[in-house]
Amino acid sequence: MRELGAILCFQKKTDDAIEIYKKMLKLDPKNGEYMAYMGYLYYEKDDFPEAIKLFNKALDADPEAAFVYFLLGNAYSRIGRIVDAVRAYDLAIFLDFDIYDAHVEFAIKYERMGRLKKALREYIAAYEIDPRDEAVKEKIDFLREKTGE
């Protein structure tokens, strides 16, 4: 079922993937990984309050999930809760998470999926962390031209 959920997400069938993960959580209601992934699916739908709720539940199940702190920081940032975002990012960094690489990896995945505006947003976030990477700057310029942003 997890593979089906991931395939549906890749196919941009986010609502269908959410339904799969809801079923998985009924079978294993305390599974932090499932809650985190479902939070990510809501994040993809720009339903940040629901994503935040699920990320926090996932962190209750696994308080050392650095990647979930990163996603939580992103969700808080998107709704303007900057202090909460910084706290979440700090916890991710404390757990040795590389936020710059995460943004670049997300950007690459979004680009491969054809989600160019989301890829652009992730490249910009990476560039704001470290503006020395010329390849990232070139990607930003290319995607801005391609998307009209």
Structural write-up:
- The chain is mostly helical and 149 residues long.
- Helix content is 80%, strand content 0%.
- It is built from 9 helices and no strands.
- The radius of gyration is 16 Å and the shape is globular.
- 35% of the residues are buried.
- The mean pLDDT is 90.
- Keywords: TPR repeat.
- This is Tetratricopeptide repeat protein.
- It comes from Psychrilyobacter piezotolerans.
* CATH fold-level label of the largest domain: Serine Threonine Protein Phosphatase 5, Tetratricopeptide repeat
First-to-last CA distance: 37 Å
CATH H-tier superfamily of the largest domain = Tetratricopeptide repeat domain
Strand content: under 5%
Number of helices: 9
- Overall mean pLDDT stands at 90
What is the CATH architecture annotation of the largest domain?
Alpha Horseshoe
* Major β-sheet annotation: none
Helix content: over 70%
How many structural domains are formed by the residues?
A: 2
Order of H and E elements:
HHHHHHHHH
Shape: globular
Topology:
Blueprint: H1 2-10, H2 14-27, H3 32-44, H4 48-61, H5 66-78, H6 82-94, H7 99-113, H8 116-129, H9 134-147
Descriptive tags:
Tetratricopeptide repeat protein; 149 residues; 80% helix; Serine Threonine Protein Phosphatase 5, Tetratricopeptide repeat; TPR-like_helical_dom_sf; TPR_rpt; mainly alpha; 0% strand
